[in-house]
Amino acid sequence: MNQVDLEYQRLGRMILENGIEKGDRTGTGTISMFGSQLRFDLKKEGFPLLTTKRVAFRLIVSELLWFLKGDTNLRYLLQHNNHIWDEWGFQKWVESEDYKGPDMTNFGLRSQKDPEFNELYQEQLKIYQDKVLTDDDFAKKYGDLGEVYGKQWRSWEGADGKVYDQIQYIIDEIKRNPDSRRLICSSWSISSLEQQQLPPCHYAFQFYVAEGKLSCMFSMRSVDYFLGLPYNISSYALLTYLLAHECGLDVGELIFTGADTHIYLNHLEQVKEQLSREPRQLPTLKLNPDKKSIFDFEIEDIVLEGYDPHPAIKAPVAV
C-alpha cells in the first residue's frame, strides 16, 4: 500500500478537523495547525510523488537544479517552462517606479475574483516573462529574487564576510565523517530577509547516515498543504537521492517537520476532492549513472518511471 499518499491524506484530515481559522499575509485566510510531521521510507515505499493528484515532476526537478546551481534569477526557470516563482518576480516589477501598466495592486486576489482584471493581469504577466527571457538588464533588475534558496545554499555569507558553500560542505563531510551531526544546511539568514522576495518556507535540512543509508529531515516554518507540500516532499526526496548517489550510499528515510501547516480557504474543495481519492502505486526514480557529481546533473539525467496518478487538481497560488 502507498503510505506516502495515505500519510499526506491523514495530515489533511487532521488540519480540517483540528485546525483553527487564521488570517495570513496574503489576505486569503487559512485553516491552520501548528506542528506536524510525516515520515517516509524512501527505500521501501518508492519515490514519494503523490498519486492522488498529478504533480508536475519536471517542475520539481528544474527548481531543485536551480537551487543547486546557486541561481536566484527566474530566467533559468522560465527557459525550462517553470512558472512556480513568477508571481514573486512579477510583484517586484509592478511595485517599482519603472512599471507603467495598469494597476496591479493585490493582483493575486483580484485575478481570482474579477475575470476582466484577470485578463489584464495575464497580459502584464506575459510581458514580464518575455522581458526576463530576452532583456538582460530587465532580468538582472526584476528577474532576480534576491538572496533566496540558491544563494543561501551555495553562497551563504557569514558575519566575517566569508562565503560558505553549504551543499559542498555537506557532501565533503559525509564522505569524510559520515557520523557527523553537523550535516546541516540553513536558508534562514536573518540579515538577508529584506533582500529576499520571499523568505524561505523550508528553512533548514539535516542529513543522517546510518547502515549505509542517507536520511534527510527538512523543516518548514510555513506549509501550504495543498500546493506547496507535495512539491517540497518530492524535492527533498530528490535531493536525498542525488546526495546518496554522489556519496555511494543508499537512501533511507525522509522526514518532514512543519510549523504553521495550513490549508488556504480557497483550496478547501480541492483538498476534499483529493482526500476522496484512492492512492495508487508510487513511481520509481532513475538517475544517470554516468553523472558522478550532484552539480553535473541536468534535467534529462533524472527520469521517473511508472507514474500513473489521478488527474491534476488546479488551485490558485496565494501571493
TrEMBL record:
The active site is at C201. DUMP binds at R25, R181, R182, R221, S222, V223, D224, N232, H262, I263, Y264. Keywords: Cytoplasm, Methyltransferase, Nucleotide biosynthesis, Transferase. Homodimer. (6R)-5,10-methylene-5,6,7,8-tetrahydrofolate binds at D224, A318. This is Thymidylate synthase. Pathway: Pyrimidine metabolism; dTTP biosynthesis. Pfam families: Thymidylat_synt. GO terms for cellular component: cytosol. It comes from Ureibacillus endophyticus. It is found in: Cytoplasm. One of its GO terms (molecular function) is thymidylate synthase activity. Catalyzes the reductive methylation of 2'-deoxyuridine-5'-monophosphate (dUMP) to 2'-deoxythymidine-5'-monophosphate (dTMP) while utilizing 5,10-methylenetetrahydrofolate (mTHF) as the methyl donor and reductant in the reaction, yielding dihydrofolate (DHF) as a by-product. This enzymatic reaction provides an intracellular de novo source of dTMP, an essential precursor for DNA biosynthesis. One of its GO terms (biological process) is dTMP biosynthetic process. Its EC number is 2.1.1.45. Belongs to the thymidylate synthase family. Bacterial-type ThyA subfamily. Residues 7-319 form the Thymidylate synthase/dCMP hydroxymethylase domain. It catalyses: dUMP + (6R)-5,10-methylene-5,6,7,8-tetrahydrofolate = 7,8-dihydrofolate + dTMP.
